[in-house]
Amino acid sequence: MEVKTSLLDNMIGVGDMVLLEPLSEDSFIENLRNRFDHNEIYTYIGSVVISMNPYRSLPIFNPDKVEEYRNRNFYELSPHIYALADEAYRSLRDQDKDQCILITGESGAGKTEASKLVMSYVAAVCGKGQEVNKVKEQLLQSNPVLEAFGNAKTVRNDNSSRFGKYMDIEFDFKGDPLGGVISNYLLEKSRVVKQPRGERNFHVFYQLLSGASDDTLKKLKLDRDFSKYNYLSLDSAAVNGLDDAANFRTVKNAMQIVGFMEDEVQSVLELVAAVLKLGNIEFKPESRCNGTDESRIKDKNVTCVYLQAYYARDALAKNLYSRLFSWLVTRINESIKVTRHKVMGVLDIYGFEIFEENSFEQFIINYCNEKLQQIFIELTLREEQEEYIREGIEWTNIEYFNNAIICDLIENHQSGILAMLDEECLRPGTVTDETFLDKLNTICAEHQHFESRLSKNSKYITDHSLPHTCFRIQHYAGKVLYRAEGFVDKNNDLLYRDLSQAMYKANHSLIKQLFPEGNPAKVNLKRPPTAGFQFKASVGTLMRNLQTKNPNYIRCIKPNDKKASHIFTDSLVCHQVRYLGLMENVRVRRAGYAFRQAYEPCLERYKMLCKRTWPHWSGPAREGVEVLMADLKVPAEEFSYGRSKIFIRNPRSLFFLEERRRQCLQNLATLIQKIYRGWKCRTHFLLLKKSQIVVSAWYRRYQQKKYKKIKSATTVVQSYTRGWQVRREYRKFFRANAGKKIYDFTIQRIMQKYFLGLKSTLPSMSPIDKSWPARPYLFLDGVHTELRTVFHHWRCKKYRSQFTEEKKAVYEEKLEASEIFKDKKALYPSSVSQPFRGDYLEISKNPKYQKLNSAMEEKVLLADVVNKINRANGKGTARIFLLTKNSVVLADQKTGQVKASVPLPDLTSVSVSTQSDGFFALKLKEGSASAIKGDFLLSSEHLIEIITKLHRTGATAADSEQLNIDISDEFLVQFKHDKVCVKFIQGAPKNGNSVSCKRKNNRLLEVSVPTTA
Ligand SMILES: Nc1ncnc2c1ncn2[C@@H]1O[C@H](COP(=O)(O)OP(=O)(O)O)[C@@H](O)[C@H]1O
Ligand SMILES: [Mg+2]
């Protein structure tokens, strides 16, 4: 079986005595010595720790070590008190089992130190936090206070506990300390008044005197000098390695931490001082006439029997001190007490004591140790064997010494030493230590463990080591000789009623509190219980308390009597090993099984080691465990199946199981981790996947959007292209035309409006009406003007259309006249309004002109009277002027005789002036017949009409050329032979309105024409 173990590997000697081979007392001691020499002060017997006092500090009590042992298996590391503390703490915390740690051993073996180590370990590993730390501090600091008042230097131990102490540390469900309760057992109060040689009074006296300030001492009325006080032994006042002054400060500080008020500390110190001073009271014997000795306090008037006076003084001092001590414990409990949850008890009770002179105190202390041994036997040896029987495990009984018989000798109700002592104390009549011893000699004579010179049993009659005033008891740890002297007194522990009443009357509140029986109102005539009785009762309570808890043992052994390191006294160790019953312990362990456990928790603990039992076993637990063991192939001799428990013989096997379990737990942790990681990864993966889907969805959407964009862009491009194509094709129908259409429409509309507007605003139909509506638009300018013209033409046409042919002819003539003369001849405007009558002479009607008329071949177109101008004088001769279609005729006015007839074609031109005169010259064609007489210079009032008609007729004549009309103010006229110039001038106003023609010379005729206004 290859198992890695620290307990068993690299061991000095053997760490667990159970594994010692061969097992003998010698090898046992040798193993202890071997380990002690190598600084291995702890050794196991199964789960019991043997602790050797090293008498020096070893580097194995430090925080690193605490960490090393924390949460480790008991058998995993080399033996240590921490391993035991850890085991106890964990089983308290995790399995809810109340624990007690029983520390036994004789005085100076290291019990108190061990108890402190356990407490400090628990304080280190349990929870932390402000509140928890405060509780821890209070629990730990209760130690220095109690040690100052309850410890003293003895020959065996410089810091010997002179009281028994049992401390319950209380924890909450998670293992954090909540508080505690301290029980104290029988303070050795006789030490207050008297100390054996080489020993000291309680530490506190020395601490107070060395450590207190001068001021405090003055207040307490104390002197620093130890020698001034009777109660302080002088021979060992200073102890090596003990700094009383420093310790005093520690104690005061501790008191403060525990929760003592300032005035409480003061009161306590006052009481300590009172005790000291009480010791200095001296009495002076005075003989009285009645023959008795009386005494009085020096200088004071108090009297009593002399010897009794000292006795009473000491009794008072002892009582005062022991009551103070009990009060201290109660006070500390007040600070740290809480309601009970889980409890770990630490018992540090005074060890077995054998002094040169042993008295009532030793008797009591050793009785207590007997009881503890008893409980050890009960729980480890007897209980173990009985368990095997109960469980039906094959078992050969191991012999061991059962000290029940000694306990019986001491505590038996009827014949026990304590019972007899009480009986003596209560008995009326003279009671002395001698009468008590006599009684013992009678009643206990036959007891195997009782030895006395004068007992009925004459066995010891010659034993000179046994003085007559003593008796001897064979304790489990050795024989002890007790002096009977003082037993009765100490058991009575009486205080004179006067004293307690006096104390009650004190002004000091603490003193008053300590002596409640002094209250006169509560006078109790019943005797108070004896010291022995009280002790027996409290030990009984303690034992019952311990029995309800899971015990953990630390068995302390002192290696030498010299309080020296490195010395290992075989005989001394051997003695302790024997009386502690360690050999038996090992034997029982070896014969039996190192470990046992009920099937259910065992299966629960190891079921993961086998596939069939993991994770659930459905059958009975025992079968499960069997399957498990078979599966693990643990050798059959290594374990046995009891009725309700499995017994494992060897720690190795247990450790094998533990180791496998540890590995398995690691695997399980890995499995959990694996599944968790798988789950975590998967969750993460799923999350990623989900995210990826979201991302890709978005991406696709984005892509699609992009595609859609492209698509829509394409569509746009396409639509533009198509649009472009279509437009190209249909442009003619669309864009260009639309505008034009609209334009046209608009224009049309405008035009329509314009025309309609125009229609309603047209001017009158009179051709001479010059008015015309305003043009609405600039662009209509042309049209507007055009329309005006058109309109004008139209109305002219209309106007014209009303004309008859005659009228038309008249107008045609007028028109022609205008064409010829307008703006050329000043006479013209005056002619416009005068109608062309043509025949002014009424030639066809007037009989005067009948002949003439008939002479005319053609119809006369014009008949008028004109003046024929003479070349000679410029005077005119009246002549009738006729115009026919073919010719011009000039006839005499009076006769009507034709003077000249000129065919029209012979006329070449007509000359007229530009002025308003009626002169005109008819020029004849040269060479024609008519021309012989020369041209005609005529004047007429109807010049315009004459010329016009002449022009018209000439134009219509078939063979005539166009008649020239020559308009100028100077023209030549061909008279018969010569040409005469006719010149027109602007006439002077003196000539009046008439035109005058004068011959200037042969060649010039001057016509003066009046100016027209
Ligand atoms: N583990 C230890 N390491 C060092 N010194 C120790 C140890 N245990 C005890 N001692 C020494 O032995 C002395 C007596 O121990 P203590 O515990 O007071 O004995 P007990 O309480 O059994 O009478 C202590 O003052 C100390 O000097
Ligand atoms: Mg002690």
TrEMBL record:
All residue ranges annotated as the TH1 domain in the record: 825-1011
Alphabetical list of InterPro entries matching this protein: IQ_motif_EF-hand-BS (IPR000048), Kinesin_motor_dom_sf (IPR036961), Myosin_head_motor_dom-like (IPR001609), Myosin_TH1 (IPR010926), MYSc_Myo1 (IPR036072), P-loop_NTPase (IPR027417)
UniProt-annotated stretches for the region Actin-binding: 539-561
Coiled-coil segments on the chain, per record: none
GO terms for MF: actin filament binding; ATP binding; calmodulin binding; microfilament motor activity
Primary residence: cytoplasm
Entry's Gene Ontology cellular component terms: brush border; cell cortex; microvillus; myosin complex; plasma membrane
Location in or out of the cell: Cytoplasm, Cell cortex
Short name of any one Pfam family annotated for the protein: Myosin_head
GO terms (BP aspect): actin filament organization; actin filament-based movement; endocytosis
Record: residues binding ATP: G105, E106, S107, G108, A109, G110, K111, T112
All copies of domain Myosin motor, residue ranges: 12-662
Domain of life: Eukaryota
Protein name: Myosin IB
Organism: Cyclopterus lumpus
